Amino acid sequence: MMRLGKLIIAALGLAGILSGCSIQKMAGDKVLSYTHDEAIPYLMSQGDLKAACQMGQSMGPVVASMSRMELKPENISIATNMASGMCAEFDQREAELDRVRALYEGRSTAAQDALIREKLGHRLAALRMSAAYENAVKTYGNFTDKCPKYESTTDELLSLLGLASGALALLHDFNSEKSVGISLDIPVRIEKAAKCFDDNKWWGMPTARRAAVGRRIPGSGPEGVDPLDAMLNAAQTGDDQGVMLARAMYAMMAATVGRDDLKCEAIGQMRRASEMNSDYDMLNAYAASMLMHYADIEWTKQNGYRAPFMQYICPADSVAPSIDQNQADELLDGLFDEEETPAVTE
Predict the structure, then answer these.
(1) Which of 14, 236, 280, 318 is the most buried (most CB within 10 A)?
(2) Which among 225, 221, 229, 232 has a CA at the least distance from the CA of 194?
(3) 196: which DSSP letter?
(4) Helix segments in the chain, DSSP class H
(5) Buried b (16+ CB within 10 A) or exposed e, 178-195
């Protein structure tokens, strides 16, 4: 009888534990569903980048931990990892401005320190955005066999953002001396994946994404297509749809290849808020922050301070920089040695 009583108590305890786990799993499932259906579309319509990146940093680990309850939070983790990657980008940009300002003032030690912080920011951004890409692959596949079928527009958007994160992760990794070691198979996958998205629906981003990795990784883009021309067409498509992300990526590419004229032209094309698609205020705010950063860099190179408040313009050509490029190279001797670009293999 005593043994039977112990068995009943044990069974009740087990039932309680199982019931508790079930309640936790149900609650977690509700949280993920709400985040997917309501929170992410809402976040896309908000323009507070700092709030978004802080949300990614704080909520990302919480969302990811739900995998311990046999839930699948990977699709939500695309957004949280990309958002937290923006925080790392903001730190990297400030370090870059510090470096340029130190060069303007001839402070070589400060410039070297800022360069190290800049590379650390690139590394963290690469880690976080690579995680966003990997979550997209886990959720929607790697696009090598066929294009996925999406249950909703939110899913298609998350997939697109995950792939864009992969492209950005690769670029950040190169700028951190390839310290993360992100696979060079990613550009090939991005090239194939771009065909699964409609440029006219998604603001020119599929083409912009292909052009970005095609320029940085020779041989990974479409044959016979100039990446800058492709990026310009993508930027114009995005402009027409009121989403400036491809425009910002065009400025980034122009800066990478040393075409300051094209970069400044892209900065000057930043639209007024009334001309932009309010459903994607977050992406437009991110694009605006990229364009403003490039304007800040140009002003700091020539004047030692940022661009005028909310002015998306490059400084006048008549303003002479305090030091020329040869002097800058002497100050940072050995720190900007070009690295060999590895070949891409299918």
Answers:
(1) 280
(2) 221
(3) G
(4) 2-34, 40-44, 49-65, 74-105, 108-140, 153-175, 186-193, 205-216, 227-241, 245-256, 260-268, 281-303, 325-331
(5) ebbebebebbbbbbebbe
Residue 78: count of CB within 10 angstroms of its CB: 30
Q: For residue range 285-342, list pLDDT tens digits in order.
A: 999 999 999 999 999 999 999 999 999 999 974 344 445 555 555 555 544 444 444 4
Going from N- to C-terminal start, the domains of the chain cover 24-197, 201-304
Say if CB 253 and CB 290 are below 8 A apart. no
Residues 6+ apart with CB under 8 A from 240: none
Q: What is the pLDDT of residue 221?
A: 52
- Which residues have C-beta within 8 Å of that of residue 71, sequence separation ≥ 6? 25, 28, 29, 32
Find out whether 323 and 104 touch, Cβ atoms under 8 Å. Answer: yes
Q: How many CB atoms lie within 10 A of CB 125?
A: 28
**What does each C-alpha distance from 269 to 104, 239, 314 come to in angstroms?**
27, 9, 12
Residue 324 φ then ψ, to 5°: -90, 180
State in Å, rounded, how far the first CA of the chain is from the last one. 70
